[in-house]
Amino acid sequence: MAQIRALALHIPFFNDDESVIDTITKIMDKISECLGICGMEPWTLRLILPTATDCRKLYRLLRDLFNVLNDDIMVGLGTEEHRECINNIVPLLTTYPKLYMSTRCNDDTCIKKVVDNVYLRRDIDIDYNVYTRFALVFGTWIETPYFPATCNFSNVLGLSISLRYVDLVEKALLDNNVLELFKFIEESNDKAMCLSKCSDIPFIGIDLSLSPWMNESVAGLIEKLIRDKIGHPGTVNAIYSLNKLINRIIDRLKLRSIGFNEVMLPVAEDSILNERIKNGDIRLRDLINYSLVCVAGLDMVAIPINTNIHSIAIDMLTIHKIKRRNVAMRVIPVNQDPTTSVNLKMFGTTYVAMI
């Protein structure tokens, strides 16, 4: 079902730390009022904070913020690997179930530090679900309503949206029903502009990335396009063609875009892709290779806990250098064998990928 996937509010660091919670609360109250006025019903509501520079202030901010926020609101932020915050990513994600975090790397030294401090922690008990809320970004910071590979690096107040619209893309490509697709995107964009005007918060843009949610399957769409299982010849071309379609829509409708604007293949969020992982039709190496061509990154993949995450990250960094575009990685190390099932909070059953 086509709908606005996420409404993200980009929150800057305010000069007066004492009033930041009050300011955010007032912004949220105004947004709640304007949602009804503009007829917008986003699937999720998100706050995007800037990169953390003072870790102690960050800890206080998160404590105070989650004390006042509605339980349904997600919060995303980034931290540089050289900050002391890197050591507390896992504890923070464990403490706050609605917190999403990312860090970025551009060299091997950074990757080793992140892998050691985030993925290879052995001094504390870790619920593998925390890794569904952490991303490693390669390149510059990304500002997008898609979590967790985002942060408000521009440090400005604004709002952005993303969409669930796989079914409409399928109708446009297979049934030639382009008008319904264009109408939905334009109406969503208009609602975002209305919200911006009503709340007096600038509209930063829309991330038109094509992303699945369970039976709204991007992998299923690819299979219909190539008339075969994803992974068979034609897969790369189908993904590339979908990316071209995204870019053409942005140009045709003169949209203000932000973020990735690419095909996304988060395994645990795509029922068909999940099934292909279960049966071994798609492996970790396939997903890495698709990132090389035209996928936004390696996303929501459960892997055996003894997998060399450092090597995966090095490959993703190399892909960033080849593509000259930002890519991201979200892997979930679990103590399970390949193709066995794993239950993820908020996502249900996924399967451990073969390497």
TrEMBL record:
It comes from Ignisphaera aggregans. This is DUF711 family protein. PANTHER family: DUF711 DOMAIN-CONTAINING PROTEIN (PTHR37560:SF2), UPF0210 PROTEIN SPR0218 (PTHR37560). Pfam families: DUF711.
